[in-house]
Amino acid sequence: xxxxxxxxxxxxxxxxxxxxxxxxxxxxxxxxxxxxxxxxxxxxxxxxxxxxxxxxxxxxxxxxxxxxxxxxxxxxxxxxxxxxxxxxxxxxxxxxxxxxxxxxxxxxxxxxxxxxxxxxxxxxxxxxxxxxxxxxxxxxxxxxxxxxxx
Length: 150
Known about the structure:
The protein is α/β, with parallel strands linked by helices. It has a single domain, classed as Roll (CBS-domain). 25% of the residues lie in helices and 25% in strands. The protein has four helices and nine strands; from the N terminus they run E-H-E-E-E-E-E-H-E-H-E-E-H. It has helices at residues 20-30, 80-86, 109-119, 139-147; strands spanning 14-15, 34-38, 44-49, 56-59, 66-70, 73-74, 103-104, 123-127, 133-138. The N and C termini lie close together (10 Å).
């Protein structure tokens, strides 16, 4: 089976200068968990996902201490609520993943699933020959394979 038979389309995309408030609204309004980030030519330069909106514990450099980090900033546990309020004006380029794993619409689904496993990602932008997103294949799309909704 080919990626084009399973992928969700169209690909909702954002520019690197889009605020996280706009991204969150797009995700909620369209029930999607991630958006390819494109340059002025429409080519993929990153991806922003719902996990970018979650605080993560990171090791403080040169120590064994872990502290929360949200939107690339260290913070106290008390500062997390303020960080979410401030995030409304943070732009995607500050939090997006820049090394994006993609697939082509004519790739076999086995290629897509293997890339998801190998790179530990939950969604892959589907790009054309110019690296322009035309769809996305996500874990949710894999459910279609089980219930034969293609």
